[in-house]
Amino acid sequence: MSPTRAPHAPARRPLPGWLLVLPAVLFLCAFFVLPLIGNAARSFEGADGGFTLLRYLVLLGDRFNLGVIAETVALSSVVTVICAVIGYPVAYYLVRHAGRFGGVIIFLLIAPLLTSIIMRTYGWQVLFARRGLVNNFLVQDLGLLDRPLQLLNTPGIAIVALVHVLVPYMVLSIATVLQGIDQRLEEGAQMLGASPWRTFREVTLPLSADGIGTGAILVFMIANGSFVTLVLLGGGFQTLPLLIYQQFTTTRDFGMASAMSVVLLVIALACLYLQLRLVRRQGV
Amino acid sequence: MTGSSALRLDRVRKDFGPVTAVQEMTLDIAPGQLVALLGPSGCGKTTTLRMVAGFETPSAGRIVIGDRDVTDLPPHRRNLGMVFQNYSLFPHRTVAENIAFGLRMAGRSRAEQRDAVARMLDLVQLGDRGDMYPRQLSGGQQQRIALARSLVLDPRVLLLDEPLGALDKALRESMQFEIRAMQQRLGITTLLVTHDQEEAMTMADQIAVMQSGRVLQIGAPAAVYNRPESRFVAEFLGTSNIFDGRVRPSGQEIEADGVTIRLPRAASPGAQVSVSVRPERIVIGEAAHALPNRMRARLADRVFRGTHETFRFEIGPAARQVHAHRQAGTGPAGVAGRPQEDCWIGWDTADSVIVTVNDR
Predict the structure, then answer these.
(1) Rounded to two decimals, what is the model's pTM?
(2) Contact with chain A for residue B73, Cβ under 8 A
(3) Residue B165 forms contact with A (CB below 8 Å)
(4) pLDDT tens-digit series, residues A87-113
(5) Between A187, A198, A206, which is nearest B55 by CB?
(6) Which of A60, A231, B46, B127 has the most crowded CB, counting CB atoms within 10 A?
(7) Closest Cβ–Cβ partner in B84, B102, B153 for A184
(8) What pLDDT is attached to residue A150?
(9) Which residue of A has its CA nearest to B102?
(10) Widest distance between CA atoms in chain B
(11) Residue A2 — pLDDT band, cuts 50, 70, 90?
């Protein structure tokens, strides 16, 4: 506003807004967008240098590869559902009952995210190894088992580890939406004869569906792309990121690895599209 | 107590930790009456309403609706209707679904729900809005739908929690009359919580003025306005000129800031007394000459306020302020209205009230 400017100060033009984000944009172009384009281009490049869809035909026409994609989606779905079931009550408690302990709970929630993924994963190994804490407790201290259980390198432990680190995303997504629900809506429902459980089903749950949706898509996408956790703890199943790793290190078929990562990216983009649609439809 | 009241609060108290929000409150509402709980924020009126609704449990006392003690019933079993300040319509449901909600909870048939929704939409004159979502309606329309939703189950008592607080002034006034007319037509017992004295006076059969968790005075709007029993009521409901002073030996008058004020009734000599006079009861100029209770005043200020004019006078050696209202366009005879002009003012002692008497 010109009237507030000091009378003799030289009129200085403000920097255009786009200049401020330029460094970040250049960085992302150089190290994210260009490699991504290169990667996609490699997946379409034939042996003669021309355009080919052959890799995608092989990838999507092969029973084994389709099985891997299905297992990837199945694993992420299971993790997502468990996160939603565990996360909703936590989010509800956080918003409605935690009061001044809310900050402590949020810190405890995001603490796993502040730990290096390698440390976290080795932690699970220490707990669940053949001679790890859990097995020692079951075999030696309680005498419940004759032999230690095979706990590591099973789908179960991989799911537990993924849920552990992804549940905060779910909780925070749901809590944000729950926070915005006017409690008078719930009181209004009760005045009209709805029991507390009915009120939850008819009012609270539908109004927080948005948060569950956002959380679910976040968790699903991150689980879909998870790699380190599955390499170190997984076993008995194969996911797309693991397969891509194999293509790079063992088979050394870079073109095929690129095609697989494009498929993974397309799944992620489809999720993002779903989320945008969901939020727009709900837009209350 | 009588068995004829529709809603009875029997020595109800509510403590929040060390703070007592409502103290030993007793209130009887006759069937079909609208009682307004009026007071500043924090006076306990909303807590009282929430105890009737069942969202707060009284620390002591009983709440009886009709002939049933509901003190220990959860809200959804009390069969009450409630309208909130922000309407609280379910944003994810259409207007018709909002109105049908209570019927659905009660397990009524679809045909019954459809008929009742149509009937309620007609009642609030929004017959064609059933398929819209609440956010597509104006504030006043949303409030009408909230009213329809709360009345669809024929509740035994209707609770209104600052129902018009979110509306602009013109709409608020017309809604006051509208809700009052509907309440009288349906003959539904109603408890209204408001901090707006105009709203209380327009809508209520009885006003209960509350302060610090207590009902200071309850009565018909005109009675509470004209005969305030305490200084707080005199000042909260409308405006008042209040004169504090010690009663002279005659017992007929007090001296307040060097001005002699005649009392409406005799008081014991030496007592500290406050006298309240409404600004519209103050007589200005020639008309005051004949009054036994009159005094010289200096005009300090004169403000036009639409329906009336406010005169601000100073009286006595301490230049004590006195406010007087005149209907607009009826300038007082014998007063030119110049600043610092000296004139007579006065009032009929019958138009003044003694409030908060402290005998020593």
Answers:
(1) 0.81
(2) no
(3) no
(4) 999 999 999 988 888 889 889 888 888
(5) A187
(6) B46
(7) B84
(8) 82
(9) A192
(10) 78
(11) very low
Say if B76 is an interface residue toward chain A (CB within 8 Å): yes
The CA distance from A204 to A186, in Å, is: 7
Q: Which SS3 state, helix, strand or coil, does residue A220 take?
A: helix
Contact A69, A240 (CB under 8 A): yes
- Partner residue opposite A193 with nearest CB, options B76, B91, B135: B76
Helices A254-282 and A209-225 cross at an angle (nearest 10°) of: 180
Nearest to A193 among B84, B92, B102 (CB): B102
Task: Report pLDDT digits (tens) over B61-108.
Answer: 999 999 899 999 999 999 999 999 888 999 999 999 999 999 999 999
Signed CA dihedral, B128, B134, B135, B141: sign only:
positive
Contacts of B150 in chain A (CB under 8 A): 191-192
Mutation site for A-interface testing, chosen from B49, B50, B65, B76 by largest number of A Cβ within 10 Å? B76
- ipTM reported for the complex, 2 dp: 0.82
**Is residue A188 less than 8 Å (CB to CB) from chain B?**
yes
Dist. CA B248–CA B254, nearest whole Å = 5
Domains parsed from chain B with CATH numbers? 7-233 (3.40.50.300), 240-358 (2.40.50.140)
Q: How confident is the model at residue A281 (pLDDT cuts 50, 70, 90)?
A: low
Task: Go through the domains of chain A in sequence order and give each one's CATH number.
Answer: 69-282 (1.10.3720.10)
Tokens 């607080």, located at residue: B165
Q: What pLDDT is stored for residue B1 in this prediction?
A: 45
- The pLDDT tens digits of the residues spanning B213-263 come to 999 999 999 999 999 998 899 988 888 999 988 899 988 889 888 888 899
